[in-house]
Amino acid sequence: MSIEPRPSSGVAIVLGGGVREALMAQPVLRACDGATVFASADAVGTLLGLPSVGRAFVFDDSPAELVRVFRRLRTNAVQTVVVPFPARFVHLALAYFAGVPRRLMATGMNRWAATERVPAVKGMHPVEANWRLAAVASNRPVLAPGDAPSLRPPDAVRSQAMARWPAFIGSGRRPLVLIPGGGGWSSRRSGGIWPAEHFAVVANQSAAERIVILSGAADQRVVRETRADIAKPTLVVNLSEITVDEVAVMSELSLAVIGHDGDALHVAAAAGALVLAVARRPDIPPRGERVKTFWTDHFERFPARQVVEALSKQARIDTYA
User: Fold this and answer.
1) Residue 132, CA distances (Å) to 129, 178, 266 in order
2) Dihedrals φ, ψ of 60, to 5°?
3) Residue 102: how many CA atoms within 13 Å on its side-chain side?
């Protein structure tokens, strides 16, 4: 499977992970015009609106697919390979053993695989690390931080989404969107989560008249628990039945999106939605102008009151704006 081909630039980008990682890699994707991009089936949906992408091939980490990518990298047409941060060892090894002349990646434990070392500071957000990587890949100096990841769904997708859920989005009232689990299309969250009852408290005390819950891979139990305690009309949407662009539209038209570090929350931030991320290290909350992160060492002890107050404050700002 591939996106509409364009003339090759001689640059290949190997994206590890899914939607979240592809969004964090946008600085690299935008800087390498005409690049051939290798991405997972989940991540390829984030590339459709990027005119800089030359060709996109879908792959996974199965042995057969990795061999296929290896053979493509071995061709003379590929002179530079970029592995955005955070990188998986298997993709670094692909670039190294394929013998691509120029190999770019953020330094650290991965310096053995790179021909050019791109400095990254420990603890740096991946989007910022990829700004630096993009500057080296495009031979431009980094004078200031670049733009945050963005998603702008086509008008046709917006119209389709509004027609699909007319009672919840596009009806003049903005729903509150909750992501009580990991919110991943395929990946599961390995860390802890904010208790379901806390999400329900925020939903019940918010100004929103309708609630949308996004359910990702392995999120069914926590979604059921959250839904059971919400006393408002609530729509549960499975990410397996919705596209990246549709989540972006739903987020854009929401009062706010509340959740954990994961695919759906990063999509919401890229869509320009108000995002309230409840996070515990080593989580990576999304970058965006309207992202507020609540850091906690213990999810169970973090009160719903703080999120409710942040929502109320934003509602007052929106009222007088």
Assistant:
1) 5, 33, 20
2) -130, -175
3) 15
Q: Report in angstroms the alpha-carbon separations of 18 from 67, 187, 225.
A: 20, 8, 26
* Angle in degrees, CA 140, 19, 268, rounded to 5: 95
Q: DSSP per residue over 117-155, as a string?
A: EE---TT--HHHHHHHHHHHHTT----S--PPP-----H
pTM: 0.92
Let me know: does 72 contact 84? Beta carbons within 8 Å. Answer: no
Residue among 310, 192, 209 nearest 258 (CA): 310
Residues 236 and 244: their CA atoms lie apart, in Å, by: 16
Instruction: Kindly state the tokens that stand for 295.
Output: 């850091």
Q: What values do phi and psi take at 198, rounded to 5?
A: -70, -40
Mind listing the pLDDT tens digit for each residue in 213-272?
Answer: 999 999 999 999 999 999 999 999 999 999 999 999 999 999 999 999 999 999 999 999
